[in-house]
Structures are given as C-alpha cells and as structure tokens.
Amino acid sequence: MTRDDLDSLSSEVERKFGKPDDTGIAVVVTCPECGKSGVIVVDAGAFAERGDGTCNYPVEGGIVCDHAFMAYIDAHFKAR
Fold first, then answer.
1. pLDDT digits (tens), the chain, 80 positions
2. What is the DSSP letter of 51?
3. Residue 22 backbone dihedrals phi, psi, to 5 degrees
4. Could you give the 3-state DSSP secondary structure of residue 66?
C-alpha cells in the first residue's frame, strides 16, 4: 500500500465519519478473506479498558469490503 493509497483511505474515512476526535484513532486494516484494505476508526479508550495493550475490534461487512471480520489492534494502533 502506497502513501497515496493511505491518504486516499484517510480522506474516505473523513468523508464517512468526519475527522477523528481526540479519542478516535484511524487504523488501516486488511480483510483476511479477500485482502482488501480500508481504514476504521478505533476508540482509544478501548485499550485502556483491556489493560494488555491489545484490542479485538469487530469490522462489519460493508466497512472495508463485503466480509465481516475481527481486527486485532496492538497498543501502537497497528492491525495484526
């Protein structure tokens, strides 16, 4: 994924959800079934609640692609 691709995805997120506030973090995720990438906005507070620095985040079908999947986000806001 190129920098232009990431910028395009970021713009798409802003159009759909507005600019992330102080608690929302934009994270690039990839569907494990079809390989399509997209951006989701993750609530930073979810990490504080877990305490171990990871978060399992459900991605509904239609957000990134037609598939629903779990995104595993680490404390550095990277999908694993």
1. 677 776 776 676 666 655 555 567 888 899 999 999 998 888 777 666 556 667 888 999 999 999 999 998 887 778 87
2. S
3. -65, -20
4. coil
- How many CB atoms are located within 10 Å of the residue 49 CB? 8
Structure tokens at 38: 């997209």
Domain boundaries, the chain: 3-74
φ/ψ of 61, rounded to 5, equals: -60, 140
- DSSP at 6: H
Q: Is residue 69 within 8 Å of residue 32, measured between CB atoms?
A: yes
pTM, two decimal places: 0.65
In 10 A of CB 58, how many CB atoms?
A: 10
Tokens of 9: 């995805």
